[in-house]
Each structure stands twice: as structure tokens, then as C-alpha cells.
Specification:
CATH class of the largest domain: Alpha Beta
Distance between the termini: 28 Å
Oligomer: single chain
Number of helices: 15
Helix content: 25-40%
Radius of gyration: 23 Å
CATH superfamily of the largest domain: Alpha/Beta hydrolase fold, catalytic domain
Largest sheet: 10 strands, mixed
Order of helices and strands: HEEEEHEEEEHHEHEHHHHHEEHHHEHEH
Number of strands: 14
CATH architecture of the largest domain: 3-Layer(aba) Sandwich
Structural class: alpha/beta
């Protein structure tokens, strides 16, 4: 997932490394050696045989927890990436393999693994799920394992993956946009070599900031490392950081991007959410809404028209919408739309709510209600699976979401690198297929941003090659069984299976 800037008061920690008395300055490699000695060694790769029921079939597979070293240009080991792989024996060279990444930055891959496409799932991300629910996994009927092997990769600082160098070197090598793409692309290549899978069809899946990663990894693999990618699936992707430029932006894009997701949530609450209804919302957003926004105070009738229509679409109080000039930001929407119930909506799915601990405060004083509830079930379920089921014994801490990584991340300036690399990758390979999947209610990575991006693709990015699918739900729409089933069916068609 992507840590939306409006989520304030994140618990922040710093990466602390012990200091050592020394007679002379140490090199980075020496520091890395010293720091690595402070960690207990990670276990050797471990596998266990399992079964899962998918689409009426029993799938027998091998679950593996393993480690891939990350090395600098001089060959020094500077990090260790831990992955979880599910492979079906006997598939041969034509069986696809899919590499999955979540986002944050600072999120492990557990959300795609145990929520969306892995063979086992634990409930989270939907209304009514609670941190105290038993973290018991069950077969995932919407898993993709019957048509592709799956490799879930935890970037450095997430899951059990770890840096072996000091904080400055860690930030340089791992906690910035470009180095992140470079080392993760090498991890994909190293896994393919290690498992002798270079001849297999290869796919990438990325959720949220993982959707920023995946087009860039695909192009890096294709053009720098020498590995072709057959297809990509971008789940609630954070594709264009510039589209959410903030509430003072002159551009109408931030307001255009958010409004359809607010309207979708309102329609869903009223039982009127349909593709036909949303087509009307999108047409209004592209047309009269954008025009009236740009008219501003030069046309009082445009302002009144804007306020009336936004009130109708969002379900908010008209006086509030009027005070905001029809420009309703996501934070205000999430706080106000459920205020009568004493609740706040989640930026990841505005119809997933939690009680507001400080309802009389002028601004939200708590973290996102959905983000807070998924840490416990995902962490407990994953650690139980790794240590008890697979038997990969470690005392290291597992980071499902690392606020320390998110805080340390060097974001640079907002860029459109993933959109550029997406265009380059599909231009280079006319056989590559791309699926972009969103939930209607997501205000963290709204679907309409991807709609506008896809509609601006050159002719080689035709609908058959770059496809946008939108499902009921939010950022983790797959937590709803029906949406997860449709997502699986659409992905299976992309794979040609």
C-alpha cells in the first residue's frame, strides 16, 4: 500500500545502530561487516509441501521461505531479501512465474500474499475485521496458483528482509526510488537463475507503491538486466504522484481524480453503484466539473452549479461544500461523511469506518482506521506460517508495515517515471500485456487517475494491451470475495490460461 500524506501522526522510529570505539575510520564494507555481526544469521531456505482447493481442484505445491543476498558494485553483501515462493512441481518451462511487490514504501508483500492471490488468506481490509480476530488462514479460492507460480518479495526493511550496512548507506542503497528499482530487479533475476526459471513466462504484480515499482522494474529487467517480462498487473497503483498535487494546486487534476471515488462510495451506500452510474460520473468529471472549476469566481453561476452537483455526488452537507467552493479534499470527506455516526472513513476504502477517538478535535488525531486494524492479523498470520508451518525458525522481528522505512525514504520530486517506463516497456515489446485494477472507493490511489493515464496512451497501448478494470471495494478490493473472484478471472484471461 501507499502511505497517503494525509495520514498524520504515524509512529516513527529511527534505525539505530550500535557505536563502536575505533582507531581509524571504517569503510562502508567494514561497517557492514560489523553491523551484520549484530544480527543472528537467517536460517537456510526451507520448504514444505502443501495443498489448496482452487476452482474445484486440489493443487499440490511447495511453499518456500528463502533469502537472496544483495551486493554492492564491489561484491560486498549489503542486504538480505527474504521471499516466500509457492511453486507447483512438474510445471515445466512453460509454466508462468509471477513476482509480487507491495508498496508503502515500507510495506511487506503479505497483503498480496495472504489477502489477494496467495494460496492461503487471512481476513483483513473489510468492514468488521478486527485486530483481535484469530489469525487463522484458510484456502484462498481466488488464488492464482493454479495458473502461475508465485514469488512474494519483501523489500529491505520490510518482512524479515534487512540491510547489513549503516543508516546512511542503507538510505543510499535501498531507501530511494531509483536504487529501489535497481536492487529489486536484480533480486528477480537472481531468483530466476537460482531456480533455473529463466525460460518461464514472467509476470510482475505490484500493489499501491508496488504499482510505481512494477513498470519501472519491467523496463529495468528488459533494457538493463536482460530479462523479458510477459505482462504486468498493477493493483490500486500509485502511478502518477503529480496527479495529487494538493489542495492549493491551480490544476483541476487533484479534484478530478478524487471526486469519482467519493461519488462511488456515496452510490454504494445508497445501493446504486453500477458501471452505468459511474460512467455518468466520469463524464461529468471530465466535462462540466473541470470547466466549472476553471471558471472560478469569474462565473458565479458556475460556482453554484459546481456546489450543487458535488453535494449531490458526495452526500455531504451543502453548506460545507459551499464553504470549500466545491473543492472537497479527501481528508475532509473522510472526516465529515460519517461524522453523524461518530466515525471516520478509511482513505483506502471510505466505506470501511472506525470510531473517531477524538471526534471534537478540529482535525483528525488518529491514524487511518483500516491501516490500524490490519497490522495484527497480517503480522501474526505471516509469522505463524513462516515459523510454524514452514519451519523457517527465526527470532527476527517481522515488519508488515515499517513506518521507519517510510520516514527514511528519499522521495525526491514527484515524477511520472512509472508512466514513462510503462510506455517504454510496452513499446519495446508488442507482446506484453498490462492490467490495471482498482476499487471504486479508493481515495489513496483513486481509479480515475489511471483512467486519465490510460486514455492518453499512444495507439500501441490499445485497450487490448493496457486494460483498466474497476471493482466494488477500495484499495484492497480483493478483500471482498466477489471482487476477488472477478479479479482472478480477469487476471487469468491476461495470462491466457
Amino acid at each position: 500500500m501507499h502511505f497517503k500524506p494525509l495520514i498524520a501522526a504515524l509512529a516513527c522510529a529511527t534505525l539505530a545502530m550500535p557505536a563502536f570505539a575505533q582507531d581509524k575510520p571504517q569503510t562502508a564494507a567494514e561497517k557492514g561487516a560489523d553491523d551484520s555481526n549484530q544480527f543472528p544469521p537467517l536460517p537456510d531456505d526451507k520448504s514444505v509441501d502443501q495443498t489448496v482447493q482452487i476452482a474445484g481442484r486440489t493443487i499440490r505445491y511447495k511453499a518456500t521461505v528463502g533469502t537472496i543476498p544483495v551486493r554492492d558494485d564491489k561484491g560486498n553483501e549489503i542486504g538480505q531479501v527474504v521471499y516466500t515462493a509457492y511453486t507447483v512441481p512438474g510445471g515445466g518451462a512453460d509454466r508462468p512465474v509471477t513476482f509480487a511487490f507491495n508498496g508503502g514504501p515500507g510495506a511487506s508483500s503479505v497483503y498480496l500474499n495472504m489477502g489477494a492471490i496467495g494460496p492461503k488468506r487471512v481476513p483483513f481490509g473489510d468492514q468488521g475485521d478486527s485486530p483481535s480476530d484469530a489469525p487463522v488462514t484458510t484456502d484462498n479460492p481466488n488464488s492464482w496458483l493454479d495458473f502461475t507460480d508465485l514469488v512474494f518479495i519483501d523489500p529491505i526493511g520490510t518482512g524479515f528482509s534487512r540491510s547489513l550496512v549503516d543508516p546512511d548507506e542503507t538510505k543510499k542503497h535501498f531507501y530511494a526510488n531509483d536504487p529501489d528499482i535497481e536492487y529489486l530487479s536484480k533480486v528477480v533475476f537472481d531468483w530466476l537463475v537460482k531456480e533455473e526459471r529463466l525460460r518461464s513466462p514472467k509476470y510482475l504484480v505490484g500493489e499501491s507503491y508496488g504499482g510505481y515499482r512494477v513498470p519501472r522494474i519491467a523496463h529495468e529487467l528488459q533494457s538493463q538486466i536482460g530479462v523479458g517480462v510477459n505482462g504486468m498487473v498493477l493493483v490500486s497503483p500509485y502511478l502518477d504522484p503529480a496527479s495529487g498535487a494538493g489542495s492549493t494546486a491551480l490544476s483541476p487534476l487533484p479534484w478530478m481524480v478524487d471526486l469519482p471515488s467519493m461519488a462511488a462510495a456515496h452510490l454504494e451506500r445508497e445501493g446504486r453503484l453500477t458501471p452505468e452510474a459511474m460512467a455518468q460520473v466520469e463524464a461529468y468529471t471530465r466535462g462540466q466539473f473541470a470547466t466549472d472549476l476553471l471558471q472560478g469566481r469569474s462565473d458565479p453561476a458556475a460556482v453554484a452549479r459546481l456546489v450543487d452537483r458535488v453535494t449531490e455526488l458526495t452526500g455531504l452537507d451543502r453548506n460545507l461544500v459551499a464553504k470549500m467552493g466545491g473543492r472537497v479534499d479527501a481528508g475532509t470527506y473522510l472526516r465529515e461523511v460519517h461524522r453523524a455516526e461518530g466515525k471516520i472513513g478509511s482513505v483506502y476504502d471510505s466505506n470501511v469506518t472506525g470510531f473517531d477517538p477524538f471526534p471534537w478535535a478540529a482535525q483528525q488525531q488518529s491514524n487511518d482506521p483500516l491501516l490500524e486494524t490490519l497490522i495484527a492479523p497480517t503480522t501474526s498470520a505471516m509469522v505463524d506460517f513462516v515459523t510454524r508451518v514452514v519451519g523457517w525458525k527465526t527470532t527476527a522481528r517481522y515488519h508488515a508495515l515499517s513506518y521507519a522505512v517510510n520516514q527514511a525514504w528519499d522521495r525526491g520530486q514527484p515524477d511520472d517515471a512509472p508512466v514513462q517506463d510503462l510506455r517504454k516497456a510496452i513499446a519495446n515489446d508488442p507482446k506484453m500485456a498490462v492490467m490495471i485494477a482498482h476499487g471504486w472507493d479508493d481515495l489513496s490511489c483513486p481509479f480515475f487517475a489511471s483512467r486519465l493515464i490510460v486514455d492518453q496512451m499512444p495507439s500501441f497501448g490499445m485497450a487490448q494491451r493496457v486494460k483498466l478494470d474497476v471493482y466494488p471495494g477500495g484499495h484492497m478490493f480483493y478483500s471482498r470475495p466477489d471482487s476477488g473472484a472477478r479479479f482472478r478471472a480477469d487476471a487469468k484471461a491476461l495470462y491466457g490460461r
